[in-house]
Amino acid sequence: MPLPERCPRWEHACSRRKMLGMLGGAVGVGMGGLCGAMPPAVADELRANERQVLLVWLDGGMSQLESWDPKPGTLFGGPFRSIPSRLPGVHLSELMPQLAQRMDRFSLVRNMQTEDKNHSSGVPKILRGHPKDRGVTYPYMGSAISNLLGATASGLPPYVWIKPGSGGFISQHAGFLGAKYGALAVGDGRPPDNLVPPEELTPEDNAARQDLRRRLNARFAQGRRPAATEAHAQVFDVAEKLVEHAELFDESRLPEADRQRYGTHDLGRHMLLARRLLEAGVRFVQVTSYGWDTHGDNFNAHASRVPKVDQSLAAILDDLASSGLDEHVLVIVMAEFGRTPRVNGAVGRDHWPNAWSLATAGCGIRPGVVVGGTTDDGTDVAETPHDIGALFHTWYQALGIDSLSAEYHNGAQPLPIAHDDMRPVADLLA
Amino acid sequence: MNDTAGPLAVEKLAVLEAACQTVALAFSPDGRWLASADYDGHVRVWDFVLDTPEVAHTLPGWRGWVTQVAWIDDQSLVASDSWGGLQCRIATQPEAPVVWQHAEAHDGWIRALALSADRQRLATAGRDGRLRVWDASDGQPGKSWEQAGADHYALAWSPDGEVLHSADLLGRIASWRAADGHRLTELTLEGMHLYDRIQDVAGVRVLVADDDGQRLWIAGGQPIRTGNNLAKPTLDCVSWETGEAQRELTLDGENSGFIQGLIQHPSGVWMGASSGSPNNGRFFLHRPGDAEPFHVATDLSNAQALAMHPDGGRVVVAGINRGNQGNGAVRGTDGEYKANSSPLNLLGLSEVDPG
Lengths: 430, 355
Description:
heterodimer; A: alpha/beta; nine-stranded mixed beta sheet; two-stranded antiparallel sheet; 11 helices; disordered N terminus; B: mainly beta; 31 strands; 0% helix
């Protein structure tokens, strides 16, 4: 069924400078493409409060040596070359040529040192910012941001997780915040089932149906704990909102050139959807890529995988920059750890929390910075390491959240939002 | 170990400790020297005249990994590297003078190198999708051509040197007229490529042409899953008469990995070694036409390379040291974080009296 035409949100929200430029360029050629562009001052005002996050999660652990922190020609360096980036003296793996050309637009942290070398415990620790143990389950980053910043003015669900496989509403990510801060998981980039209402349902009938649903939910909630009933109602509200934006999931509307730029593989398709969701106003979008746990054939695996990260991440960085959203969207690319310098017998690399790298860009982040480094052979952090708690402080600060004083309230229990012994990485903050 | 009656018997003669992990092995034509292509950018030349072979010369000068090695004659070898370099050196002299070299023979990782039967021409291929032919004696470039979108894993010459066979990431087996790069045939082996979780996995790792030029043997594995890179080792055969591929052998165990080395013994028996997931893999002997190999060893895990002595009585399998894997900083008893190494397993082969 054809979906209604809608303007992407960025068309309503580009920077004052760019908007003026667009208006100038539009003289004599009409304004239709701008969807009735709003005055720049209004756009700026809107954007001031619309800080968003894109988290690219490379599940299993991408090798830092085949990506952000190459050590070519050393004992553990592997077969690949490094290439110079746009930043003098900074090299990336040859598998990242497009990102190397955009190195001035993002930053690297090469001295990550974290505690856990296992997936099952390491993933939640990293995604929760590994705060001090206070006997509660902290939220994953997406749930935390949902709670701290709420939905944007778009009203779209604040936490959308684009992942291969199945989707659903993942309440477990919310921890003590309560189920309503869970993730709306979009399996394989497909919209939730039955998102598009049947054609025979009129808007009036649909509105009446939603009203009835709300009244029934309210009656059901009476005398019950809000934590459970709010989440239940939230899922319906989310679904209702998504119906209004069903076109976001319609890949057939995308220009072929966009599809080719991002790549037709899962990661490319999912990153392109992430861009559309961010443009539409989703507060926090996580894109997960699985299969990075390369205990076997690590180098052929990275030769196949890393260029897909290079392609899709470069494309979204370009698009965020050209739409002006780079000033408002915080981008994070990481995993639960890196991979061992030592190459095992299956030509794989194992888990390595000891000295790994992540990349970050956008809102509040100083671009073109390389924080820390590793020893010449990549086996250790060269100087002071950073744990994930320090990065959570950094990202919260970048989003305008004072992580040193802000607290959650778990009932009567105040809880710091990030590890209270750690501080932001000042070099990363704009 | 799993043994049934076969034309060859195997015994382990020695395990030669090595300094580094090895990608490829090759004996000199006279059998005196064994060259190993190693992760540290060195070629190590082992003296096999000694009762207990040991490294005679360590040759630096390659970049990244040394990826393949072959002997041009009894003194000179040629080896490729993962940064696209190709060098011919007189390897039997300690200073190993360079005969010829190309720093950028390819753009990046050269995975495959094949010497023609008469040792006059060399072919190379790798990640850049280009196939190149070289004069082995002086390194002069010959014909080169590109297979669009290909990432090459293996090469083999026909016995007469007229045809070059290639295998790529997608399981495409192409045959090319070496004189001009004209593609003669191409077939895609079913099941020898996997796309899993944004990763392409190559099934074909080795090509060997029959001496009579009638068949091309294709070894590797049927990829099952990425991550630990699970695969079942396979050996296929293409008949030029019919143009069809037939499965000759599938080894059991999805942890057994890809056949990384395959050599035909003068008796006709195929010898192969598979990589395996960590601490798995197989060394096997297989008589063509049999339902199963008559010898399978599981104690030579994670083999990456195999070489047969020209006398046909010895074979060397590059394995891996114990304790080669582990998450986090697994350290030795001395507290050091060490690289792994590929001990060379020297096996004796003897023909079995059928009576």
